[in-house]
Amino acid sequence: MKANIYAKADVLSALIAERGLTLSELAERAGVTRHTVRNALDGRPVSAGFVAGIGLALGVDFAEVFTIRAQAAEAA
To answer: Where does the signal peptide begin and end (predicted)?
Structure first.
């Protein structure tokens, strides 16, 4: 079974606002593109590198901002 990592968009948005950051500023601090941050907020899966970058940039634990969900098995 394959699993994907997703941002908890409401939590991530709140953390960005609490810290007074723009998406571009967060992206720069995390070493990713603004587009990648936007994709995460829109519910697309993220990479482990993204998780690490965001965690370091915001000073938060993985479990606070991200969740792992199993991907549905494809029909043969």
So the answer is: none
pLDDT digits (tens, 9 = 90+) for 11-32: 999 999 999 999 999 999 999 9
Task: Quote the pTM value.
Answer: 0.87
Number of domains into which the chain is organized: 1
* CATH classification at residue 11: 1.10.260.40
DSSP secondary structure code for residue 33 in this structure: -
Q: Cα 54–6–40 angle (5° rounding)?
A: 60
* Three-point CA angle 43, 19, 14, nearest 5°: 35
Question: Which residues span the domain enclosing 12?
Answer: 3-70
